[in-house]
Amino acid sequence: MLNFQEAVQVFDDFYLNNLIFPPEPHNLYEPCRYTLEGAGKKIRPVLCMMAYQLFREDFTEDVFHTALSFEMFHNFTLIHDDIMDNAAVRRGRPSVFNRFGQTAAILSGDVMNICAYDRLAKVSDDVKLVQLLRLFNRTAIEICEGQQLDMDFEQRNDVVLEAYIEMIRLKTSVLLAACLKAGGILADTTAANMEGLYRYGIHLGIAFQIQDDLLDTFGTEESIGKQPGGDIRANKKTALSIALEQEMGREAFGREMSSILRTEGAEKYTGVKRLYEQYGVDKQVRKMVQHYTDSAFRDLQSIDVPDDRKQHLQVLTQYLLKRTK
Amino acid sequence: MLNFQEAVQVFDDFYLNNLIFPPEPHNLYEPCRYTLEGAGKKIRPVLCMMAYQLFREDFTEDVFHTALSFEMFHNFTLIHDDIMDNAAVRRGRPSVFNRFGQTAAILSGDVMNICAYDRLAKVSDDVKLVQLLRLFNRTAIEICEGQQLDMDFEQRNDVVLEAYIEMIRLKTSVLLAACLKAGGILADTTAANMEGLYRYGIHLGIAFQIQDDLLDTFGTEESIGKQPGGDIRANKKTALSIALEQEMGREAFGREMSSILRTEGAEKYTGVKRLYEQYGVDKQVRKMVQHYTDSAFRDLQSIDVPDDRKQHLQVLTQYLLKRTK
User: Fold this and answer.
1) Which residues in chain B are closer than 8 Å to A109, comparing Cβ atoms?
2) Does the predicted TM-score (pTM) go above 0.90?
3) Among A217, A303, B77, B323, which residue's beta carbon has the most beta carbons within 10 A?
4) Is residue B40 predicted with pLDDT exceeding 90?
5) Which helix H or strand E contains B209, and what residues bound it?
């Protein structure tokens, strides 16, 4: 059984040894290669591999194809999201959109999406392939819906926490959940275990994302690797801002915020942060993170294999959510 | 056996009776509905249905799912192509990009692509679904490659006819070919017949597209439904312009064109058209259309079913290429 670092290594070996994109047309595939070269932490393929290893020791090629397929899909969404968000930087490098231009980002994103399907279709077991394909489709559609809701919410002033969490579930959680469930499908486990894995991914994703909101305001530059306060400066809707609006009532919230939002920089950041503390919104959101974290661990607990097999997934979960502590 | 009009009707009935996109998120699915409502001639789904009916009389739901899947994929490519080409009009209406904005066009295009896969995955026969999926993937990748080559060619001055035809094959033909072959897969025909159908689609697509180039310069407003000369006005690379460059030699071509291209409007159009005739390029390109048309009919001939079953496909081919006569 592989731990996180070992799993990343094995995954990297597989995909570096597989020429993923053909050399030509260069302008189509170069942005794809650029994107995968800069690939992030590889959480998604590793979740698929670790879920598989709950039940079976030896990987088949089908596991790697599936893990890579999800990773490619995730990278496709980043390429297109960066166009929509006009984001110049991704993983410390120029975004595809910024580096290769918008047309390249659209078309290379499209082909990366299709190549993700093409990779999935290399799964050799027809019955599993069809199961995986249907899971993949449902997940991919939900991710588009989540991205749409995220954009819609920025234009609305009536978003409640439940709707926000549903948006996170769609935009972030279902992909983690699908990667985990795919590992279960490939390992031929029970339907109950597959559903346990899926729920675990949902709760893990929600906890992670709300945590992200918290840290952006209450983290230190040291702990999060960037200046805190980015969400406040960008007037972004977060679990904190929505909870504050619910606590204060829309009218008082609107009054207070419109006065603070006229200020800029450090003053704005400290003003909003102080409001969060004054209304106990930071504690409320911390409790939410704890709730979803507990649920995630309970889901993992529910999976019917000996506890020692779950160790690596537990460590990975703690690593992903460690910033709660 | 259905003729073209009847097949369109049966296809429309199927898909109007199937709620294809959910109501929410509205901003995600409204552009998708808008696109399919304005859907064009439905050549691709009809080719799939007619290929199936070469071998079997009664449609299964699997045929409609597959036909719709290809139609959705085609419409997805149009949505994204219109962003890349900055095209304001599509099928006589504002393009999605123009009507709903760029962000909507990117994300709705993405979900339409995924929904095409989702529709394909409704095929109930696992073995056929896997065959169709692999055909679909290969085709979709080639179409992206064709779109890239098309854009690359506009920036190059060394494109030869063979490369141009290869671009057309990828951008246009492989989708027609895949629709036809898919009909064959669904009808359980022989590998030889499937390949015959595929080749027929390739030749049909190339003949159609080169013909399109010819008509844009030599057609009448009456016959093509728009003013001729659009390609010349836009300095677009076509079979005609490439053939002319090959006939004249690059240097003479460059000299002659740079003087003509300084003129505008009617003068430019008549100037370039006169060059095409002077160098016999119109005749050369007409011969190419005839060559690929003959090949298409020969491919259809090669399919091992009684001739009377091929009647509707022959009529459709003549209809699509009638403008050659």
Assistant:
1) 110
2) yes
3) A303
4) no
5) helix B191-218
